[in-house]
């Protein structure tokens, strides 16, 4: 059975799915909460105030092997160094953030784009508030996991009803959807 969708899957949606499948489903329905957009605005501000501007934003488009259209907005790319940068406020959802960057690296690979000397692009997550950075690598194992997660996500988005809430109530208390989920 084909699991591809006709609408694109973005890196942010993919990251939401890894944090909470229900959140990804709600966002795909077009439901955005106010705090969510404030967080995005804050992230953008961090991005624009923390680094020099000799770097490029990238809008990526690709098609997964199963036909699913994929899109990605990369915070900053140092093309000469072959490094994609993603800015985050904190490390609470680090695994999801790592996968989001790997998603972008995969989009480049699907487009046949390589870095200097034909080497694959690398990733880096920057935490300006913490004054630290985390390198992101992408090997065959991570790519396999990513493809599997993407397949699960596309299936989930076809469901007529949202999945159950996650069990981490403490995490939900910081989520913009808390009132919707528990109200
Ligand atoms: S409140 Fe909890 S269950 Fe609801 S979308 Fe947010 S993280 Fe998921």
From TrEMBL:
InterPro entries: Dna2/Cas4_DUF83, PDDEXK-like_dom_sf. Coiled coil: none annotated. Residues 11-182 form the DUF83 domain. Pfam families: Cas_Cas4. It comes from the Bacteria. This is CRISPR-associated protein Cas4. It comes from Pontibacter rugosus.
């Amino acid at each position: 059975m084909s699991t591809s969708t006709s609408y694109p899957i973005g890196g942010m949606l993919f990251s939401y799915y890894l944090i909470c499948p229900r959140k990804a489903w709600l966002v795909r329905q077009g439901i955005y909460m106010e705090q969510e957009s404030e967080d995005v605005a804050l992230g953008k501000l961090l991005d624009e105030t923390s680094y020099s501007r000799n770097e490029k934003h990238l809008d990526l488009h690709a098609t997964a092997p199963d036909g699913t259209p994929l899109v990605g907005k990369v915070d900053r790319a140092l093309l000469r160094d072959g490094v994609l940068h993603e800015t985050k406020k904190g490390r609470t959802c680090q695994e999801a953030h790592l996968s989001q960057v790997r998603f972008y690296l995969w989009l480049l690979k699907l487009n046949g784009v390589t870095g200097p000397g034909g080497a694959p692009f690398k990733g880096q997550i920057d935490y300006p508030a913490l004054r630290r950075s985390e390198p992101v690598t992408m090997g065959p194992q991570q790519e396999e996991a990513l493809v599997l997660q993407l397949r699960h996500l596309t299936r989930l988005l076809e469901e007529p009803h949202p999945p159950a809430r996650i069990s981490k109530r403490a995490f939900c208390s910081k989520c913009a959807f808390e009132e919707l989920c528990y109200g």
